[in-house]
UniProtKB/TrEMBL annotation:
Residues at the catalytic site: E55 (proton donor)
GO biological process, one term: pyrimidine-containing compound metabolic process
Reactions catalysed: 2'-deoxycytidine + H2O + H(+) = 2'-deoxyuridine + NH4(+); cytidine + H2O + H(+) = uridine + NH4(+)
GO CC entries: cytosol
Source organism of this protein record: Trinickia dabaoshanensis
Lineage: Bacteria, Pseudomonadati, Pseudomonadota, Betaproteobacteria, Burkholderiales
Protein name listed in UniProt: Cytidine deaminase
Length: 129
């Protein structure tokens, strides 16, 4: 699967977002090295601290299905933003821990703008235990 196809999958996941409060829908798609794809969308809650972002939804779904960090090939994330979407700080930390620092990330928006990066580039001073 190409990064463009993965981004299209993230766009489809975005449509499933539950965002009644912010109306800001985000989609993500996580590709494993063996070709499986795990979708994620943001899920809001009236108690904002209980919300979950699309990136974490995709990663947590993969982990729950039995995947481990060395099995991920790429992550695509998309939102309705002016430029390519930027993951929040919490997602950057989860991405680097579960995806590994060299995970390829394609960031995009609905206008077709994209940016390719890595987890390390997104969080150069990541926290590790």
């Amino acid at each position: 699967m190409t990064l463009e196809q993965l981004l299209e999958r993230a766009k489809t996941a975005r449509e499933r977002a539950y965002a009644p409060y912010s109306k800001f829908k985000v989609g993500a798609a996580l590709l494993t090295k063996d070709g499986r794809v795990f979708d994620g969308c943001n899920v809001e809650n009236a108690s904002y601290g209980l919300c979950n972002c699309a990136e974490r939804t995709a990663l947590f779904s993969a982990i729950a299905a039995g995947c481990r960090r060395d099995e991920f090939a790429a992550l695509a994330v998309v939102g309705d933003t002016d430029g390519p979407i930027a993951p929040c700080g919490a997602c950057r930390q989860v991405i680097i821990e579960l995806g590994g620092p060299d995970l390829t990330i394609r960031l995009g928006n609905l206008r077709g703008d994209t940016r390719d990066t890595t987890a390390r580039e997104q969080l150069p001073d990541a926290f590790y235990l």
